[in-house]
Amino acid sequence: MGQLFEALKQDILYEHGMNACLNCGVCTAVCPAAEFYEYSPREVMNTVQSEDDELIEALLKSDQIWYCGQCFSCKTRCPRGNSAASVILALRRLSVRLGYFAESEKGRQQLIAKRVFGQNMLDRGYTLLAKNITPEHFPELGENWEYYYEHMAEMREWWGVPMDLENSPGSHRQIPTADLDELRAIYEKTGAIALMDAVEAGMEKKLGNKSEVEKYWQTWLETGDSRDYPLPEAD
Q: Which of 20, 173, 208, 226 has the fewest Cβ atoms within 10 angstroms?
């Protein structure tokens, strides 16, 4: 039993998610993500159960742990009450803490999740704001969304859900400062802030410096596809 497996076992989500996998494959059969990706929850559970640090490290550095959509279909169907989705969450936390997430393309996208969803939570109390859904990044939403995006402040006034007004109805209201301070304290106490910091640090280590991290971020802002950022050549 290696250090990585020991670290994984300390996570309460691993404890709740892994009861002893039979390798029956029901989790993979019902997994929506397995329909679209080269992804198998059964293989993830099998790798973790091996307690082999070499295999677990490869898993932590792979795209595999980022394909799960956290629908928990696996938990409802597993005959042993396992939850591959919970084990995946524990793997993700360990991957971020160790900086391994930055080794995979899907893992590096955690910087985008941190700077959009994470920062929104700390600043506004929401993971996603309408202003984040730019027509350039989401052209499939069409002309109606483009019009709304350009006139959202005016339209929300018409609808009686004005933007940036404290305790106004709707998802663009301003959360009172005292409530946001409480939310930030929860994030600090539960280690969420530390994980966010680990994402920035892991990306800086992988890309070489903060300037490259900002280039990665800017590439995504401009193109909506982080894969357009060319990774620096390894030494």
A: 20
